[in-house]
What we know:
Elements: E1 3-13, E2 30-41, E3 46-62, E4 65-77, E5 82-94, E6 97-109, E7 112-122, E8 125-134, E9 141-148, E10 151-152, H1 153-167, H2 172-175, H3 185-190, E11 199-210, E12 214-226, E13 236-242, E14 246-248, H4 251-257
Parallel strand pairs: 9-11, 10-11
Antiparallel strand pairs: 1-2, 2-3, 3-4, 4-5, 5-6, 6-7, 7-8, 8-9, 11-12, 12-13, 12-14
Amino acid sequence: GQTDDHLALAQFPLSAAVLFREGLLRHQLKGTLRAEAGVSGSSDHLSVHSAKLRLRGLGAVFPHAKILEGDLDLSAADDFSRVSLTVSQGALTAFSNSFSDIRVAASVAGQDLKVSDIALRWGGSNLRLKGRILDLSAPKEVSVSGSLDRLEWEKAQQMLEGIAAKVSTTTASAAAGESAPKSPWVETFKYRIQRGFPDTIGRIHIGEVTHKNFHFQKADLLWDLRGVTPTLQKVSGDVRIGFGPGRVNDIQAVQSSN
Protein backbone atom coordinates (compact mmCIF):
# COMPACT_ATOMS: atom_id res chain seq x y z
CA GLY A 1 0.00 0.00 0.00
CA GLN A 2 0.87 3.64 -0.27
CA THR A 3 2.03 5.73 2.67
CA ASP A 4 2.37 9.44 3.31
CA ASP A 5 3.86 10.04 6.73
CA HIS A 6 5.63 12.67 8.78
CA LEU A 7 8.35 11.38 11.09
CA ALA A 8 9.87 13.37 13.97
CA LEU A 9 12.56 13.00 16.60
CA ALA A 10 12.61 15.59 19.38
CA GLN A 11 15.53 16.59 21.62
CA PHE A 12 17.59 13.44 21.33
CA PRO A 13 20.79 13.67 23.44
CA LEU A 14 23.76 12.79 21.25
CA SER A 15 25.56 11.28 24.23
CA ALA A 16 22.95 8.48 24.12
CA ALA A 17 23.94 7.51 20.56
CA VAL A 18 26.48 5.06 22.00
CA LEU A 19 23.54 2.88 23.07
CA PHE A 20 22.90 2.19 19.38
CA ARG A 21 26.50 2.18 18.13
CA GLU A 22 29.23 1.53 20.66
CA GLY A 23 31.95 2.75 18.29
CA LEU A 24 30.67 6.32 18.72
CA LEU A 25 31.98 6.37 22.28
CA ARG A 26 35.44 7.47 21.10
CA HIS A 27 33.94 10.62 19.57
CA GLN A 28 32.57 11.85 22.94
CA LEU A 29 29.42 13.24 21.34
CA LYS A 30 27.61 16.11 23.07
CA GLY A 31 24.59 18.23 22.25
CA THR A 32 21.03 17.57 21.14
CA LEU A 33 19.43 16.49 17.88
CA ARG A 34 16.00 17.28 16.47
CA ALA A 35 14.92 15.79 13.17
CA GLU A 36 11.84 15.46 10.99
CA ALA A 37 11.10 13.99 7.60
CA GLY A 38 8.22 13.69 5.20
CA VAL A 39 8.11 10.37 3.35
CA SER A 40 5.73 8.88 0.84
CA GLY A 41 5.50 5.86 -1.42
CA SER A 42 5.25 2.13 -1.01
CA SER A 43 7.22 -0.49 0.89
CA ASP A 44 9.19 -1.13 -2.30
CA HIS A 45 10.21 2.49 -2.73
CA LEU A 46 9.98 5.29 -0.20
CA SER A 47 10.62 8.86 -1.28
CA VAL A 48 11.87 11.51 1.16
CA HIS A 49 10.31 14.70 -0.15
CA SER A 50 11.54 16.81 2.77
CA ALA A 51 13.86 16.44 5.75
CA LYS A 52 15.25 18.72 8.44
CA LEU A 53 17.94 18.14 11.01
CA ARG A 54 18.85 20.50 13.83
CA LEU A 55 21.92 20.11 16.06
CA ARG A 56 22.48 22.35 19.05
CA GLY A 57 25.56 22.50 21.26
CA LEU A 58 27.35 19.94 19.10
CA GLY A 59 30.59 18.59 20.49
CA ALA A 60 32.69 15.78 19.02
CA VAL A 61 36.25 14.49 19.08
CA PHE A 62 38.12 13.18 16.02
CA PRO A 63 41.74 12.07 15.54
CA HIS A 64 43.00 15.52 14.53
CA ALA A 65 40.10 17.80 15.42
CA LYS A 66 37.62 18.67 18.13
CA ILE A 67 34.25 20.39 17.57
CA LEU A 68 33.03 22.70 20.34
CA GLU A 69 29.52 24.07 20.83
CA GLY A 70 28.34 23.97 17.23
CA ASP A 71 24.82 24.91 16.08
CA LEU A 72 23.93 23.33 12.74
CA ASP A 73 20.83 23.15 10.55
CA LEU A 74 20.53 20.79 7.59
CA SER A 75 17.57 20.55 5.25
CA ALA A 76 16.93 18.40 2.19
CA ALA A 77 14.26 18.01 -0.47
CA ASP A 78 13.36 15.80 -3.42
CA ASP A 79 15.15 12.65 -2.18
CA PHE A 80 18.19 14.69 -1.12
CA SER A 81 18.77 16.08 -4.60
CA ARG A 82 18.72 19.51 -2.96
CA VAL A 83 20.49 20.01 0.38
CA SER A 84 21.32 23.14 2.35
CA LEU A 85 23.58 23.53 5.38
CA THR A 86 23.81 26.40 7.83
CA VAL A 87 26.22 26.65 10.74
CA SER A 88 25.21 29.64 12.84
CA GLN A 89 27.97 29.31 15.40
CA GLY A 90 30.73 26.98 16.45
CA ALA A 91 34.37 26.51 17.38
CA LEU A 92 36.96 24.01 16.29
CA THR A 93 40.46 22.96 17.27
CA ALA A 94 42.45 21.18 14.56
CA PHE A 95 46.15 20.52 14.02
CA SER A 96 47.04 22.51 17.16
CA ASN A 97 45.10 25.58 15.94
CA SER A 98 41.90 27.09 17.29
CA PHE A 99 39.10 28.45 15.11
CA SER A 100 36.12 30.31 16.59
CA ASP A 101 33.05 32.32 15.53
CA ILE A 102 32.50 29.79 12.72
CA ARG A 103 29.61 30.41 10.33
CA VAL A 104 28.80 28.46 7.17
CA ALA A 105 26.16 28.67 4.45
CA ALA A 106 26.32 26.00 1.74
CA SER A 107 24.03 24.11 -0.59
CA VAL A 108 24.07 21.16 -2.98
CA ALA A 109 21.87 21.05 -6.07
CA GLY A 110 22.17 17.87 -8.09
CA GLN A 111 25.91 17.17 -8.07
CA ASP A 112 27.13 20.76 -7.62
CA LEU A 113 28.23 22.28 -4.31
CA LYS A 114 27.97 26.01 -3.69
CA VAL A 115 29.51 27.54 -0.57
CA SER A 116 27.95 30.97 -0.22
CA ASP A 117 29.91 31.90 2.88
CA ILE A 118 32.45 30.56 5.34
CA ALA A 119 33.49 32.91 8.11
CA LEU A 120 35.74 32.17 11.06
CA ARG A 121 38.27 33.66 13.42
CA TRP A 122 41.74 32.13 13.54
CA GLY A 123 43.74 33.58 16.42
CA GLY A 124 43.81 37.31 15.70
CA SER A 125 42.73 36.92 12.07
CA ASN A 126 39.32 36.90 10.36
CA LEU A 127 38.80 34.68 7.32
CA ARG A 128 35.95 34.81 4.78
CA LEU A 129 35.61 32.32 1.93
CA LYS A 130 33.15 31.27 -0.74
CA GLY A 131 33.44 28.73 -3.50
CA ARG A 132 31.95 26.18 -5.83
CA ILE A 133 32.64 22.59 -6.86
CA LEU A 134 31.15 21.26 -10.07
CA ASP A 135 30.13 17.58 -9.98
CA LEU A 136 30.93 16.28 -6.51
CA SER A 137 31.06 12.67 -7.67
CA ALA A 138 33.98 13.45 -10.00
CA PRO A 139 35.03 17.09 -9.47
CA LYS A 140 36.15 18.83 -12.64
CA GLU A 141 36.45 22.41 -11.45
CA VAL A 142 36.88 24.08 -8.07
CA SER A 143 36.66 27.84 -7.62
CA VAL A 144 37.53 29.69 -4.41
CA SER A 145 37.61 33.34 -3.40
CA GLY A 146 38.04 35.02 -0.07
CA SER A 147 39.86 37.38 2.22
CA LEU A 148 42.02 37.24 5.33
CA ASP A 149 42.50 40.49 7.19
CA ARG A 150 45.81 39.52 8.82
CA LEU A 151 48.26 36.65 8.30
CA GLU A 152 50.88 35.78 10.90
CA TRP A 153 53.49 34.05 8.74
CA GLU A 154 55.06 31.90 11.46
CA LYS A 155 51.67 30.70 12.65
CA ALA A 156 50.57 29.75 9.12
CA GLN A 157 53.86 27.94 8.50
CA GLN A 158 53.49 26.04 11.76
CA MET A 159 49.97 24.93 10.85
CA LEU A 160 51.00 23.72 7.38
CA GLU A 161 53.92 21.80 8.83
CA GLY A 162 51.58 20.23 11.39
CA ILE A 163 49.13 19.13 8.71
CA ALA A 164 51.96 17.79 6.56
CA ALA A 165 53.26 15.76 9.49
CA LYS A 166 49.84 14.13 9.91
CA VAL A 167 49.31 13.25 6.26
CA SER A 168 52.86 12.13 5.50
CA THR A 169 53.29 8.47 4.63
CA THR A 170 54.95 6.57 7.45
CA THR A 171 58.37 5.40 6.35
CA ALA A 172 59.91 2.04 7.03
CA SER A 173 62.38 3.60 9.44
CA ALA A 174 59.55 5.24 11.39
CA ALA A 175 57.75 1.90 11.57
CA ALA A 176 60.91 0.42 13.05
CA GLY A 177 60.80 2.98 15.81
CA GLU A 178 63.16 5.54 14.27
CA SER A 179 62.39 9.15 13.48
CA ALA A 180 61.12 9.67 9.95
CA PRO A 181 63.18 12.11 7.86
CA LYS A 182 61.56 15.52 7.79
CA SER A 183 60.50 16.73 4.35
CA PRO A 184 59.38 20.23 3.37
CA TRP A 185 55.59 20.55 3.66
CA VAL A 186 55.31 21.44 -0.03
CA GLU A 187 56.99 18.15 -0.98
CA THR A 188 54.64 16.23 1.33
CA PHE A 189 51.54 17.58 -0.40
CA LYS A 190 53.11 17.14 -3.82
CA TYR A 191 53.20 13.38 -3.36
CA ARG A 192 49.61 13.26 -2.06
CA ILE A 193 48.04 14.58 -5.26
CA GLN A 194 45.60 12.04 -6.69
CA ARG A 195 44.72 11.24 -10.28
CA GLY A 196 41.86 13.30 -11.61
CA PHE A 197 42.80 16.35 -9.52
CA PRO A 198 40.27 19.02 -10.53
CA ASP A 199 41.07 22.27 -12.28
CA THR A 200 41.13 25.11 -9.74
CA ILE A 201 40.74 28.85 -9.97
CA GLY A 202 40.73 31.37 -7.18
CA ARG A 203 41.75 34.58 -5.51
CA ILE A 204 42.65 35.29 -1.88
CA HIS A 205 43.21 38.84 -0.62
CA ILE A 206 45.26 39.35 2.55
CA GLY A 207 45.10 42.72 4.25
CA GLU A 208 48.36 42.45 6.17
CA VAL A 209 51.23 39.95 6.47
CA THR A 210 53.44 39.96 9.55
CA HIS A 211 56.70 38.12 10.28
CA LYS A 212 59.49 38.75 12.75
CA ASN A 213 61.76 39.71 9.84
CA PHE A 214 59.34 41.41 7.44
CA HIS A 215 55.95 43.10 7.18
CA PHE A 216 53.83 44.25 4.27
CA GLN A 217 50.29 45.28 3.32
CA LYS A 218 47.75 44.08 0.78
CA ALA A 219 48.88 40.75 -0.59
CA ASP A 220 46.92 39.06 -3.38
CA LEU A 221 47.17 35.43 -4.45
CA LEU A 222 45.55 34.47 -7.76
CA TRP A 223 45.69 31.10 -9.49
CA ASP A 224 44.25 29.26 -12.46
CA LEU A 225 45.63 25.71 -12.55
CA ARG A 226 44.59 23.02 -15.02
CA GLY A 227 45.68 19.53 -15.95
CA VAL A 228 47.36 18.83 -12.59
CA THR A 229 48.83 15.31 -12.46
CA PRO A 230 50.26 13.29 -9.54
CA THR A 231 53.66 14.56 -8.26
CA LEU A 232 53.10 17.66 -10.44
CA GLN A 233 54.64 16.03 -13.49
CA LYS A 234 52.31 18.13 -15.58
CA VAL A 235 50.42 21.30 -14.75
CA SER A 236 49.37 24.33 -16.77
CA GLY A 237 48.00 27.73 -15.89
CA ASP A 238 49.09 30.73 -13.88
CA VAL A 239 49.89 31.64 -10.27
CA ARG A 240 50.37 35.28 -9.39
CA ILE A 241 51.30 36.88 -6.09
CA GLY A 242 51.18 40.61 -5.54
CA PHE A 243 52.46 42.57 -2.55
CA GLY A 244 51.74 46.07 -1.36
CA PRO A 245 54.15 48.35 0.50
CA GLY A 246 56.23 46.76 3.25
CA ARG A 247 59.58 46.40 4.92
CA VAL A 248 62.21 43.65 5.26
CA ASN A 249 64.20 43.94 8.48
CA ASP A 250 66.79 41.21 7.91
CA ILE A 251 67.18 39.91 4.35
CA GLN A 252 69.73 37.25 5.28
CA ALA A 253 67.48 35.85 8.03
CA VAL A 254 64.51 35.69 5.62
CA GLN A 255 66.61 33.79 3.04
CA SER A 256 67.86 31.37 5.69
CA SER A 257 64.41 30.58 7.13
CA ASN A 258 62.59 30.18 3.81
